[in-house]
Write a structure and sequence with these properties.
Blueprint: E1 2-5, E2 8-11, E3 19-22, E4 27-29, E5 36-37, E6 42-45, E7 49-53, E8 59-68, E9 71-76, E10 82-91, E11 96-100, E12 112-115, E13 118-121, E14 124-128, E15 139-142, E16 152-156, E17 163-167, E18 179-185, E19 189-193, E20 197-199, E21 203-207, E22 213-216, E23 221-224, E24 228-230, E25 234-237, E26 241-244, E27 247-251, E28 255-257
Parallel strand pairs: 3-6, 4-7, 5-8, 6-8, 7-9, 8-10, 9-11, 10-12, 10-13, 11-14, 12-15, 14-16, 15-17, 16-18, 17-19, 18-21, 19-22, 20-23, 21-24, 22-25, 23-26, 24-27, 25-28
Antiparallel strand pairs: 1-2, 1-4
């Protein structure tokens, strides 16, 4: 593992029995070899620190106990296609984790993340890309358990390139109190449900433009009980069933059913 501040780079080899804290706006680079595990008992992030995932295409890095206590990012580390992160991620109430599949400012190098980690906590989670473009199929796929995550979720994208957040096997839990913007779609962001489930009444859904999309896989049923609001409607795709219990008068525009 390497951390960088300006032009200074330091190498670290985390070891068992130690808890590690990264709380400065520096870059923490993972090893470039796939299959390695962070050796410390825990890694706590805050202060705008950025984890740059440097494993090769289809490679994986495991962080058994990643704690997000403040602002932090996980980003792609090079031009390869798919990065995988395993272990466990706990986003504390004051934590804000941003998972960005953009690669620098090259719109042709937007990539994919597979988050195999179980995600828990009541902080905020941003999933998306900050560099808009027209090429590639960027996504963040969550294959680990999400039921213990009750915080705010923002799906971030521009107005040109479709970005997908995929819930493969699990849906997030419900906030303890009503959160009107508990699930927010920015730009051309799509949420793909590959499994059945329900988002409860305390997780409101906000569409910031008419470009948002909800996909439900064939033979699956997703129920959204939270209040839906936003501008210019959204699009429903996929052959599965989407049940909406609480469309409000503050959701304006057209809801397009494409499949």
């Amino acid at each position: 593992w390497k951390n960088s501040s300006g032009v200074t780079t330091k190498n670290h080899k985390p070891s068992a029995g130690n808890d590690y804290v990264a709380n400065q706006p520096y870059i923490l680079r993972t090893p470039t070899t796939s299959g390695l595990t962070f050796g410390g008992d825990s890694l706590t992030l805050s202060g705008g620190v950025e984890i740059k995932v440097k494993v090769p295409n289809n490679g994986i890095v495991t962080i058994p106990n990643l704690i997000v206590a403040g602002a932090a990012q996980i980003v792609c580390g090079d031009g390869n296609h798919l990065k995988k992160v395993a272990g466990a991620i706990d986003i504390l109430e004051a934590g804000a984790l941003k998972i960005d599949v953009s690669y620098d400012d090259n719109v042709e190098n937007v990539r994919q993340f597979e988050i195999q980690s179980a995600v828990s906590g009541a902080g905020s989670l941003w999933s998306g890309l900050t560099v808009d473009g027209t090429k590639g199929s960027p996504y963040v796929k969550f294959t680990g358990a999400l039921a213990d995550f009750t915080g705010k979720i923002v799906l971030g994208a521009g107005d040109t390139m479709r970005f997908a957040t995929i819930f493969e096997k699990s849906l997030p839990g419900d906030p303890a109190e009503t959160m009107e913007d508990g699930l927010t779609f920015e730009g051309k962001a799509a949420l793909e449900f590959m499994t059945s489930g329900k988002l409860g009444i305390t997780r409101g859904v906000t569409f910031c433009s008419g470009l948002g999309e909800i996909f439900v896989a064939e033979n699956e049923t997703v129920q959204i009980d939270g209040r839906l609001v936003g501008l210019d409607g959204f699009k429903k795709t996929g052959k599965g069933t989407l049940a909406l219990a609480n469309i409000s008068s503050d959701l304006v525009g057209t809801v397009t059913v494409a499949e």
